[in-house]
Amino acid sequence: MIGEDRADDDDDDTLTVKEKETDRWRCISHIFFSAASKNPHKIAVVHASGGAQQLRTTGTITNTITIPNSSSTQSPSLIYHYHGDCCFTYSHLLAAVDSLSRRLRSFLPDAPQPNPITITTDKRTPRILGIYMPPSVEYIVSVLSVLSCGEAFLPLDPSWPKHRVRSLVASSNLHLIISCASPFGINSKSANWLAEECAPCPVMWFSLEEGEGVGKPADLAWPCECESGTERLFCYLMYTSGSTGKPKGVCGTEQGLLNRFWWMQDLCSLHGEELLLFKTSVGFIDHLQEFLSAILTGCTLFIPPLDVLKENVFSLVDFIQAYSIDRLTAVPSLMRAILPTLKGLYEMQIPSSLKLLVLSGETLSLLLWEMLSKILPRTTILNLYGSTEVSGDCTYFDCKRLSMILESESLTSVPIGIPITNCDAVLVGDGDLPNHGEIYVAGLCNSVGYYIDSKFVTLDNVKLPSVYTSCSSDNENEGQLYFRTGDFATRLRGGDLVFLGRKDRSIKCNGQRISLEEIEDTLREHPDVVDAAVICKGQGENMLLVAFIILKEGGSSEGFRSWMVEKLPLPMVPNRFNFTESFPMTSSGKVDYELLAGSTFLAEHVQYKIADVGSSNLLQVIKKVFCNTLMVEKVSDDDDFFCIGGNSIAAAHVAHDLGVDMRLLYCFPSPSKLYRILLERKGSFDLDVRKYANLEMYPEKSKGVILHSFQTPSPPKAESGVRLLKTPHGDNENHAGVSKRMKMDSKVNVTPEGHWSVNGFPWNSNSIQMSCSFSRCNRVMFEGEYRVDDVHQATCSEVHRTRTASMQELWKVHLGSCVDASPLIVFKGRDVYLFIGSHSHEFLCVNARSGSVQWKLKLEGRVECSAAIIGDFSQVVVGCYKGKIYFIDSSNGNILWSFQTSSEVKSQLVVDIPRQLIWCGSHDHNLYALDYKNHCCVYKLPCGGSIYGSPVIDEVYNTLYVASTSGRMTAISVKVLPFKILWLHELEVPVFGSLAIDSATGRIVCCLVDGHVLVFGSSGSIIWKYKISGNIFAGACISSALPSQVLICSRNGSVYSFELEKGNILWKYDVGDPITTSAYVDEHLCLTSDTSLSSGRLVCVCSSSGRMHLIRVDLDVHGETQPLKLDVEEFARLDLQGDVFSSPVMIGGRIFVGCRDDFVHCIHVIL
After folding, report:
1. What are phi and psi of 238, to 5 degrees?
2. From 262, 755, 1033, 1134, which residue has the greatest number of CB atoms within 10 Å?
3. 599-609 and 618-630 are packed helices; what angle lies between their axes, rounded to 10 degrees?
4. Number of C-alpha atoms within 13 angstroms, CB side, residue 98?
5. Which PROSITE patterns does this one have (predicted)?
6. How many whole angstroms separate alpha carbon 145 and alpha carbon 391?
C-alpha cells in the first residue's frame, strides 16, 4: 500500500460562515473551482482497484510510502491507496474539465437548439448531453464539464441493456453522447456500439489524458453569473420507471442538488479531510450526492470497480476497511446483505472507520437498525426519504432519537423523520385521520417536470389550503406548489413521519422505483404475447416479480427470461413467468390484480398447468398435486404430507406445481390446512410465512440417548390403516413401503456382534492409510497430493464374483427424528468416523466401525444437508434450516464459529482447499464463499433461485459451477479475488440435484427437474442433452470405477447410465420404486471371475420406499478393437423400516445411509 500525507489545512479547506453564505448562491461549477483551486496537489479521486484485493489476500496493510497530499505541510495525516490504484489530483480534474468544456463549446454552437419549454418565461431550455460511463473520474469530469457549459446531462448506465439505452437516447432528444473507450471498472463492456446504434446522435470520446493546463475557462461565465433569461431550467435528466408503462425522465434542478448538499453540510459538515466512497450506479439519483459532496468540499473520493462490487457485494466491506472510508450511502437491502461480514469484523474487535451511514431508497426495518446499531456503535445512522422528483431526499431521521421514541410509540420500521432545509411535507388524507395520508412535498427540492417520449410534462403539482399541517416549523404551505409523491405515511406525536406504502403499482427494488406497467408493456412487445400482467410478492430482499402471460395460438413459452434481460435492467425482469388463457377482469373491463394474485385464480391457473385435474376446486387441486408428487392413489383432506412419504424435495415439487412458497407446506402440511390458509389470504399473493417460521412440524422427542450396544429389537408393527407406497414389483417384503408415519420405539444404538470383516477384506485394517473423506455422488477428498485414481487402485480389494449376495445390518444409531441428510465418512489415521444430522436438530459423530457415538450436539434447526470436512480435517462443517452454517471441531464437537445466511441451508457444502474456502448455497438464492481460516465471508453471488444441489469446482481451470431452482447455471472464475462470472445459462427449469464434473474432460453434468440431462463444456457450450421420462431430483454420479459413464436416478424408478462423451444410453435398470437420491459406486470393491476378463462393480441405489438395491455392473473387455460389453443385473436387496431420502455412501462392501425410521444405518454385503 502507498500512503498519502494530508494536512488539516483549516485556513484553506474550512469555509467561514461568510464564505458559506456566499457559496450558497454560487453554481456547482463555481463551488468546485473554488475548492479545487485551494488544493491543486491534493488527491481528489482514486480509482481503487488494488486495496480491497490486497487486504483480502494478505489481511494486512503493507508497503506504506509517504507522498505529499496537499499544499500544506502542517499536521500531516495518512490517506491510504495501494499498488494498482490510480490517483488524480484536483489539478488533474481542473485541467480535464477545462479541456472537455472547450471541446463541448466548440461542438454545441453547431448543434440544433432544443425546443423551448414554455412553462416559465425567465429560464431557457438546455441542451441534453448523455454520459455513458460507470462511476469513474471521467464521469465526474464529464458532469462538471456539461454543467460549466450551462447545459444538462443524462446519465446512461453501461450495465443497462442496449435496448434501454437506445430508447432513452431517442426519448430525450440527446444532442451528444460523451463516452470513454476504456471505462474504469467494466473492462468487459465496450461503448463502440453507441456510434452505430444510437445514430443520428453523435458520440464524443473522452480520455482524461487530454487535460492540459489549470484554471477557470476565460471565455465563459459561470452559469450562476448568467444574465436573466439565460439561466437553464434544469441541469440533469434522470429516468425512472413510469406508471404509464414508459420510462420518464425527471428534470432536476441545480438548486435542488445544492439545497440537498448544503443541508447535509449544516447537519454533518465535511471539512476536506474525510474519505468518501463513490459506488452507486449512475442510474440512481443518490450517486450525485456521493461524488458532489466530496469534490465540492475538497475531500478525497475513492471509486471501486463497478464489476467487482456487482460480482461480490461483500467486497464493499473490504473497500471500507482498506481505505478507512468515513461516510457511506446505501440502501437497507445492501446493508442487510453485507451484515454477516460486518458482524464478523465486530466480533473480531476490528473497529469500523465509518462515522456516518446514510440509508435511503427502501424501508428501514427496526430489526436491521438494531443490528447495525450494535455492530456500528460509533456510527451516526440517518434514514432519508425521497425520490428522483425531489432531488433524491426531502426528509430525514437521525436514528439516535429512535430509542426514546420507541418508549412511547409502537413501530415496525424506522421513521423517515422531518423535512430537510427549504423543503416541506404535508399529509393529505381523509379528514377523519388528520395524521394519515399521502405525502405532498414542496420546496427547492422539487424538479420542474418530466421528459416522456420527447415531450415535456409538468409535475403533478397542486396548491393546498392552509388547513393542512406542515411537517416543518419553518415553512408555511400557503401559496406553495406541492408534488404528490404517491407515498403514504403517518405522523407520530413528535412530528416525525413513518412510511406506510404506495397508492399505485410502483415498487421499490434496491432503492430504485419500478413501475409494473412498464414491465407489462415490455412483455407485450414479445412476438408470442397477446397480453401480460405483472404482480409483486413480498417486500425487501424477499420481493418477487411474477408475470402472467397470455400467449398467441402456437406461441412458445420458452426463453422469456433471456428475452427480457435484453430489454430491461435486471431488477425489472420477473422472477417467475406463468402462462394462462385469460385474466380476471373488473366490472369496468380492467385486469383485476387483486383476484389475479388470489387463490381462486391460482387454482384455475394450476388446473391449466396440470390439465388432468379436471376441477377448479382448490382443495381438489391440492390433493391431486399431493397424489402426483407422492405417487399414491388417494390422499384424504387431513393427511399430513410428510407423514405419507413427503420430504423436502417432494415439497419443492408441490410448491412448484401450486405456485406457492414452499415454507407454507411445512406450516400447513395437510390439504385442508393448506386450502384454508390460501383462502384466508385471498386477494394477496404475499403469503406471509415468516410469522409461522417458529412452528415445528414434529414435536421434540426425548433427548435421552443410551450410548451402548444392544441386540437388535424386534421390528415394530405398522399402524393400522397406514398407506403403502405403490411398487410395481408386487408386495414390499419386510414392510418396505411403510412410510415415515411408522417410527421406531427404541432409542438405542444397535450393533450385531461378530461382523468386523467381510469376506476377506477386513474393514478394520488400515487399507486406506491416508486421511480422506467420502460423501454422496462418489465425492472423495484426500489430504495431500494423492491422485484419486491411484488411491482407489491401492485400496481396492478384489473378491471372487458370485451370482448373488445378501446384505445384513451391522449397526444403527438413533437420531431422534427423520434422517434425510447423507452421511459423511472420514478416514483419519486408524480411525473412521461418520458425521450426520437429522430433523431433530441433532448432529452426531459416530465411530463408523462400531456404531458408537463419539459426540453429539443440538443445532438451531433441522439438518438435511450433508456435512463436509475442511482441508486439514480439523473441522466439520454443516448447515441447518435456520440458515446457519456451523464450523465444528471434528474431535470433540465444539462449535468454533458460525455464519448466518438469510434462509434454509440444504445444499451440500463444498470444500475448496487451494483457496481455504467453504462454498455453500442457501434458500435465500445466494451462493456464499466462507474463508474457514479467517472466519469471514469473502464472496456472495445471487443465483436467481434457491440452491439445493451443491456446486462443483474444476481445479484445472479454477472454475466453480452452480445451479439454482430458477434454472440459472453460472460459471465463476475462482482463481483469484475478486471472483468473476464467466458465463451463465437461463435454463428456465428448476435444478434440485447437485452438479457433477468429469475431472478428465472438465465436462459438467446438470440434471433438470423435468427430466432433461445436460452436459456442458467449460466454455458454457452444451455438448449433449437427453430427456428421460421421469423427474430428476438427485445429482448425477461420476466414478472412476465406471469410466466414461454418468449415472442418473429418476423418480420414475429407473437408473440410467449415459456415455459421457456423446450422451448415448449404455444401460438402464428399473428398481420399481421412485428414486429421489443419488447412486453410489463402490470404488473399493472389485468382483472378478476366473473364466473371463470381466470385472464387476457394485452400484448402490435407494428408493424412496426404503428399499436398498445393489446393482452389479460387469465390464467385459476384449481388447481395444472390440466395444465394451456391459452386463447389468440386481445383486442384492434389503428393505429398511422407513422411507429413504438420504443418498448412500458405499466403501469396501459397507453401505451407510439415513432413513426416516429415525436411524442412520450401516449395512454390509455378504458375498
Report:
1. -130, 125
2. 1033
3. 40
4. 18
5. AMP_BINDING
6. 20
How far apart CA 918 and CA 928 sit, in angstroms, is: 8
Tell me the β-bridge partners of 850: none
CB atoms inside a 10 Å sphere around CB 708: 9
Contacts of 394 (CB under 8 A, 6+ apart): 385, 386, 419, 420, 423, 425, 441, 443, 445
Copy the grid coordinates of residue 882: 435456520
Q: Is 272 left (phi over 0), alpha (psi -120 to 50) or beta?
A: left
Looking at residues 493-511, what average pLDDT do you find? 81
**Other Cβ atoms within 10 Å of 611 Cβ, number:** 7
β-strands 86-89, 1012-1016: how paired?
unpaired
Q: Determine the pLDDT at residue 120.
A: 54
- What average pLDDT score do residues 1120-1147 get? 80
Say which amino acid occupies 1: M
Residue 896's region, left for phi above 0, alpha for psi from -120 to 50, else beta, is alpha
- Relative to beta strand 1095-1102, strand 1080-1081 is antiparallel
Can you tell me whether residue 17 is helix, strand or coil? helix
Least trusted range by pLDDT, from 21-35, 517-531, 1147-1161: 21-35
Taking residues 144-158, what's their average pLDDT? Answer: 94
Q: 740 to each of 643, 723, 1053, 1155, 1157, how far by Cα in Å?
A: 5, 10, 19, 9, 7
Contacts of 701 (CB under 8 A, 6+ apart): 816, 817, 840
Average pLDDT (608-615) is: 32
Q: Which cell goes with 36?
A: 479545487
What average pLDDT does the chain have? 78
Q: Which of 152, 99, 391, 413 lies closest to 259 in space, CA to CA?
A: 391
* Angle, helix 28-38 to helix 254-267, in steps of 10 degrees: 50
Residue 156 makes CB contacts below 8 A (sequence gap 6+) with 130, 131, 132, 133, 165, 168, 169, 177, 282, 283
Structure-block grid coordinates of residue 439? 405525502
What letter represents residue 273's amino acid?
E
Contact 808, 782 (CB under 8 A): no
Q: For the whole model, what pTM was predicted?
A: 0.59
d(CA 614, CA 620): 9
The three grid cell numbers given for residue 852, joined into one nine-digit string = 458408537
Q: Which three cell numbers stand for residue 455?
A: 415531450
Which residues, 6 or more positions from 374, have their beta carbon under 8 angstroms from its beta carbon? 346
SS (H, E, C) 655-711: HHHHCCCCHHHHHCCCHHHHHHHHHHCCCCCCCCCHHHCCCCCCCCCCCCCEEEEEC
